[in-house]
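Sequence and fold
=================
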Amino acid sequence: MAEPSNSLKQLALQKFKRNFWGVFCFIYIIIVGLVSVFAYALAPDNSQYANQMHLAIHSKKPGFTVQMLTIPSELKVEQNVFDKLFFGKINANTEVPILKYSIENNNLVYTEYTSDGLLGTEKTLNLNVFSNNKAEEFISEKTFVLGTDKYGRDLLSRVLVGARISFFIGFVAVFISLVIGIFMGSLAGYFGGKIDSAIMWIINVTWSIPTLLLVIAITLALGKGFWQVFIAVGLTMWVEVARVVRGQIISVKEMQYVTAAKALGYNHYRIITKHILPNIMAPVIVISAANFASAILIESGLSFLGIGAQPPMSSWGAMIKDHYNYIILGKPYLAVIPGLCIMSLVMAFMLIGNALRDALDVKG
């Protein structure tokens, strides 16, 4: 019996490989996933949440370059490699954008950077704060590839770190929706009767409440935060999975292989998990891809409204909220770039969902 199963899997895989947009979107999603995991290793600003602010260079255009003076801190920060790689570096040093500098009488004299052609403040710093009294080692030229936001933070770093929230909220929300949806849908479809009526009543009530309103209510009940948003989004998406699973189980539970399993004396748990669910997972996989895209949009909407990921945490939706007024102020890229990131990732999941639907369609 394993041979036909393997052949069907191979056939579905071959059909998926022939779909150019499906393969392209799959590769794109893998790349975004790797970027979200190793964001701090790739970001120019590897401080926690890429939150290094320089108000003197706020809202600069892409490709902006400035000299940066790093004043070392006396505070000793102990942090292991794992924390730096996955959670960002705790930066105790002070970074100051400067226009020019000179060394006079064992002192570093520098002029702070200012916008609009104004003359910056001239300050003096004793060279003893630097190791070996060599200030040049702490002055570097820094280029902001995508420019800076309104707080002077590196926009590229914020976009890379923001991918983590948008990507992982999809995984967590889809996982929660699958666990609840498959459980509730299996009970309703397999047992029927009063259990089916009760579960369908819960599904219909949940379905009738606008998704965004329900997410806002759950978020306010659980509190604002990172994991609260993940849980809130997941708790609102299970109804679609439950309806699909229920309908699929109703259509297959009278088939011969289920009847044979009952005749052999297998319990309900084994029949559902070992015999029914493996044969109805194709539509569940397809709807999970759509739910992934929906979760990203919902999280972006919540962050835009200010009840999603909280500052200083980077989120694409929050970046749009902070900079949407710059669209009419001549710097639309501050809001357009994170908007394009959301659009491309959502479109990738929708296209891969279509590709999976075509590949798993045994009638095609």
Remarks:
- The beta strands are 64-71, 94-104, 107-112, 122-126, 139-144.
